[in-house]
Design brief:
Number of helices: 7
CATH topology: Glutamine Phosphoribosylpyrophosphate, subunit 1, domain 1
CATH architecture: 4-Layer Sandwich
Radius of gyration: 18 Å
Length: 270
Amino acid sequence: MKMSTRSPLLILIASLTLYSAMEGSSLAGQQQASVKADLPWPPVATFSILGFDPETGEIGAAVQSRVFSVGNGVLWAKAGVGVAATQAIVDVSYGPQALELLALGYSPDVVVRTILDADPNPDPERWTIEGRQFSVMDFQGNVATHTGPQASTWAGHKIERYVSAQGNILAGPGVVEGMVRAFNETEGHLSYRLMAALEAGQAAGGDIRGMQSAAMLIVKEDGGVWLNNDVVLRLQVDDADNPIVELRRLVELAGQQRDRIQAQRRGSGR
């Protein structure tokens, strides 16, 4: 993965004015997009989900891929700001750029369009902008997602209220459809809903190359276990035969810890 040195402020100066009128435009309302392409480079297959819980204010994402340590580059989040996933033909800088632009008050629609428009496409042979897949959600659950026309078959995304599922080199559209359905139908903590979405995506065929790593990231201002901690949950399974099963085990352990802490706080009257 190649990091870019582009500044989000320079992006704003260069292109944000072009899209300031696009608030609420087609990206956020897009229910599903898909592309098919045969590519000359080794693709990076991934499926991920972004989700928001309006009852708790928690926002987060989860991801699975047939690559080592997928959590190192795909998931980005900041409490009170939002969450992003950058995948497929990856430019990792999309993540921090998205968070900076969201923090300045721009909508996910404008953030996605601005970053894509300002991408100089420095290595089109191996890392073409046409293969990018990128999803951005703000701290209120508004979301926009882009799937490039050269993201590897099957690639696409599905958006509903407070959720977006996206992936590439998948078994088909049933993967993202199943993920969104599982997220919406699952009750309980946001981690359980994100976890159910990954499991549903895999049950629908998932990444056609198989599994290797998975990760989950959830944030909320002062929502963590320790003092001045905005990270509710940060879990990574970097290399496993069945990373989704291992991630489920970690999610369950985190839930047990959360229940113990809540019981202690109730007992102390906090």
